[in-house]
Amino acid sequence: MTTIYVDGDACPVRDEVFRVATRLNNLPVIVVANGSRPIRPPDLPNVTMQIVAEGPDAADDWIAERITVGDVCVTSDIPLAARCLERRGRALNPKGHHWTLDNIGTALAGRAVGEHLRATGIPTGGPAAMQKQDRSRFLEALDTAIHAAIRDISAPPPRKWVSFE
Fold first, then answer.
1. Which end of the chain is more exposed for a tag (fewer CB within 10 A), N or C?
2. How confident is the model over 45-89, as pLDDT tens digits?
3. CA distances from 115 to 110, 132, 144, 146 (A)
């Protein structure tokens, strides 16, 4: 069964995930957070809160160790998205962008360039604020990702899988 993992510490679309998962036969949702910003869990039988140890990658590690083919991860974290793809899961960001084997390498490279620029004192700006159309695009993308993940469960494994390490 498809499980939706939510990188929960800073996810602006949790409520949208809950609505879609509930509409699609109560798909399991696991919201993973390190507890630095307490999240009030919804009173839904298909939603589980997983609090992990504090640390910058604790939630990412927990998700990456468990996601598998047929699952979906909602995250803004590009390295976590890459780890999910390595395990044959699906990943999308809160603005509805699907991460794939074709685009994750470029995203990782861009992230590395941004980190280098910031380390040298050059401001790079932050992500644009969520807009109403972003939420709409996310809802459509999540629905698409879930249906594709469900199909992935019955598909044969690829002959060769790519690692980003």
1. C
2. 999 999 999 888 899 999 999 999 999 999 999 999 999 999 999
3. 9, 29, 31, 32
Type of residue numbered 108: L
State pTM to two decimals. 0.87
For residue 148, give both structure tokens. 């594709």
Q: What is the architecture, at CATH level 2, of domain 4-154?
A: 3-Layer(aba) Sandwich (3.40)
Specify the DSSP class assigned to residue 159.
Answer: S
Total number of residues shown for the chain: 165
For 28-90, the three-class secondary structure string (H helix, E strand, C coil) is CEEEEECCCCCCCCCCCCCEEEEECCCCCCHHHHHHHHHCCCCCEEECCCHHHHHHHHHCCCE
CA 38, CA 87: separation in Å to the nearest integer? Answer: 28
- The domain limits of the chain are 4-154
